[in-house]
Specification:
With about 160 residues, this protein is mainly α. The protein has helices spanning about 1-15, 65-110, 115-125, 140-150; strands at about 15-20, 30-35.
């Protein structure tokens, strides 16, 4: 049983060869290399499908289509980052509101009497209600108000008797 485990360990260790590179004046660093066949990386210039999303180096000249595509990609990346940021802010606000409401509810529940709980709930509501202001002016009234506001000489409101 031990001999099988030792054979497995030896076969695993034999896969890795430790080579030392001896340079004059430098201490000998060690590199791990495997005996598995090395596969060369694909040539990105000969295979455009592989290198389509790789940004070129600044010293490579680009044609108009490539420049336009790069601008589109940068714009899309910017939009995605902005959307992600807005989503993160929204989730943080929502989490804060939920935690605040839970804390206020806990305070209301822990009041010793019902009267104190009702007072606290009236003064400190768990959820803040949004106030929606309705426009009370109709079109004719709005036109009249705008006319009065835009009258610099005061001819519409100043009266002489």
């Amino acid at each position: 049983m031990q001999s099988e485990e030792e054979n497995k360990m030896n076969s695993m260790v034999s896969e890795i060869v430790v080579e030392t590179i001896a340079n004059e004046g430098d201490p000998a660093p060690q590199q791990l290399t495997s005996k598995a066949p090395q596969i060369d990386a694909p040539d990105l210039q000969n295979n455009p499908k592989i290198g389509a999303f790789v940004l070129p180096t600044p010293n490579v000249t680009l044609d108009c289509k490539q420049e336009l595509e790069m601008k589109r990609q940068k714009n899309l990346i910017g939009q995605l980052k902005a959307a992600e940021s807005q989503n993160k802010i929204h989730s943080m606000r929502l989490r804060y509101r939920k935690m605040r409401a839970a804390e206020i509810n806990h305070l209301i529940i822990s009041q010793p009497t019902a009267r104190q709980a009702i007072r606290l709930e009236a003064l400190l509501p768990p959820w803040q209600e949004k106030i929606h202001f309705k426009d009370t002016l109709d079109k004719l009234e709005r036109k009249r108000v705008e006319e009065i506001i835009n009258d610099e000489a005061g001819l519409t409101i100043n009266r002489t008797v």
